[in-house]
Amino acid sequence: MHPDQIQIKNLQQLRQFVSHTLCQQNDFEEGIFQVTERILTRGTQPCGIFFCLHGPRSVKLTAVWETDRNSILFYGSTGERFKKTVLSTAPKIAV
Fold first, then answer.
1. pLDDT in tens, 59-80
2. DSSP secondary-structure letter at 62?
3. Whole-number Å distance between alpha carbons of 60 and 79
4. If you placed Cys at 61, which of 11, 20, 22, 56 could pair as Cys (CB 3.0 to 4.6 Å)?
């Protein structure tokens, strides 16, 4: 699996990209299902964001943006990783 590379300028673009990718992978209509997020911390410093799309019939699809590697890892409902995307620029995490 070769990672894609994209440029994201802010958190709103990051949220849209994650939602679009999770919906596209599972043939879900965008904007229908709720996407929640949690800031991940190491000690007291933010180190990423965990995204969860709550689909039909309790299906949960997830993505993790890790700031150390500046990449987004996407996971299907079974927990298997299906995609990795590297960001050429990183947005700032607002705490």
1. 999 999 999 899 999 999 999 9
2. E
3. 9
4. 22
Question: How many CA atoms are closer than 13 Å to the CA of 67, on its beta-carbon side?
Answer: 15
Strand (E) or helix (H) holding 24 = helix 11-25
Consecutive H or E run containing 74: strand 71-75
CA distance 18 to 87: 12
Give one DSSP letter per residue of 37-80, joined into a string: EEEEEETTEEEEEEEEEE-GGG-EEEEEEETTTTEEEEE-TTS-
- Which residue from 91, 30, 43 is spatially nearest to 65, judged by alpha carbons? 91
Q: 């709550």: which residue's tokens?
A: 54
CA–CA separation, 75 and 63 (whole Å): 6
